[in-house]
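Title: Prediction job returns without error message
Component: structure pipeline
Severity: low
Priority: P3
Assignee: unassigned

Description:
Job completed but the reporter wants confirmation the result is attached to the right record. Sequence as submitted:
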Amino acid sequence: METVPKPGSNVPPKKDRLQAKKKKPRRYWEQETTGTAAGASPGPPRKRKRNRELRPQKPKKNDTSKKFRISKKPRELKSPGHQRSLSGAQDPFAGPAPVSVEVVQKYCRIDKSKEVPHPKTKTRSRLVAAEAQEEETSVRAARSELLLAEKPGFLEGEDGEDTAKIRQADIVEAVDIASAAKHFDLNLRQFGPYRLNYSSTGRHLAFGGRRGHVAALDWVTKKLMCEINVMEAVRDVRFLHSEALLAVAQNRWLHIYDNQGIELHCVRRCDRVTRLEFLPFHFLLVTASETGFLTYLDVSVGKIVAALNARAGRLSVMTQNPYNAVIHLGHSNGTVSLWSPAMKEPLAKILCHRGGVRAVAVDPTGTHMATSGLDHQLKLFDLRGTFQPLSARTLPQGAGHLAFSQRGLLAAGMGDVVNIWAGQGKASLPSLEQPYLTHRLSGHVHGLQFCPYEDVLGVGHSGGITSMLVPGSAEPNFDGLESNPYRSRKQRQEWEVKALLEKVPAELICLDPRALAEVDVVSLEQAKKERAERLGYDPDATAPFQPKPKQKGRSSTASLVKRKRKVMDQEHRDKVRQSLEQQPQKQEKAKPTRARPSALDRFVR
């Protein structure tokens, strides 16, 4: 019996229709799974149905049924290696980027070797939080080194060639056009000799001649900002916190000019000034005079903070320590004295030479000091508390001017010759055995300074100004928020407001700035003693132990005395243990070992 086919029976089912379709090409991020059928495209993953579990309802007030207990198990965090994106691709570089330990230690500022003895719980938690924050900051700073595009260069000779024999003309021919334009000579014999100074950003240059010529310019673009003749002898020039203000030490008084050459102030309390220094973080202009006075002038308020009498005659040698803002003065008796406006006496005195001191320079890290004297000696001293000479060299002519670069290169001006010595890297001691570069000028040197963030050495001499190329002398990367050479006028004004708000008081200048973060134990003990004498009792003293009364006959007099004595003995043991830990351990004398014991060994001590 033939059956009539039902309508629509020849139509394949829905699943067969999906398989009959053309295969969908598989992307590279899609992986084959065992669950996919052969010949079928993987397609998007299907949504899994959630297991809808019955949630326990809050029992009502009148409900006496048992409450459900929900066990709160810790959620298992998946490792970042198993995480996938929306496309299904796996991240080949999961997690944060690795950072080397050496780079992190370079940015770490906490000394973990010093431990606070027996800190309280609250103090210990604060210290742990501060250390964790400092470690995270150092890791971020180390990871951001990848953004520093520039690297410091250096000059290397071929096949053992002496770099001191390489001339400036050879360096100019080898470098690019932009770097070659940084080498120039200004022939100004009519008004020399000259003293010069670079701005903190390294973009502007100011110089003043002995016969009254004062000028300031953008030395990169060679655009002149101002040029005047003060009709008076100029001893020194110095930029203040920005290139908009310029201090000039003239024959009689100290004058302040703007970048247009207009005189703004005449400070008559600073007379017969020979040298100028500016402390940027304290807004202090320091002057050394022929009368032997060291004066600190606060340029933010226009007041003299301190006027100190050095009692050493004429002051013509002065420099600053960029690390702690301490002023170094060189004297005619061969000593170098260190000064702070907070004290009327020098912080330290160092005997450096058998004759008078001619020049002093301190490196940017504040660890080394270079001095030269009339005995033709060039010495390097350690400023980290010992003040001992590290190396010395006898020069044919005594160095009259010294300068350190940002990366630790030392330049010395001897007559009409400039010698430069280099070390192994930043904060390393320069090697005085062989000079790194040598250059002969057209006149005697009267001023030296390395340009910040540029491999340039500015030299002021009797014939004018010379800009030398010194590869590897400056930091290749600058902080745009601190010293930006490309900042606009509006950015400079905003930076000035921020710098004024962050101004450091002059009373905080000391030899070791890290001591400001420590506790002055002597002053604290003295204050506690004076407070106890004033009140008649010590409010911080701990009350004596009083045992709590107990019941059932356990609070008898003998029991209370016994408990008090037990607590006192425990406190005494703790004190003895602490005193023994603080005492240095004595090394026991090694007894002579013999083959056979002797009866006389009992008398050996």
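Comment from assignee: result matches the submitted record. The first helix runs from residue 14 to 20.
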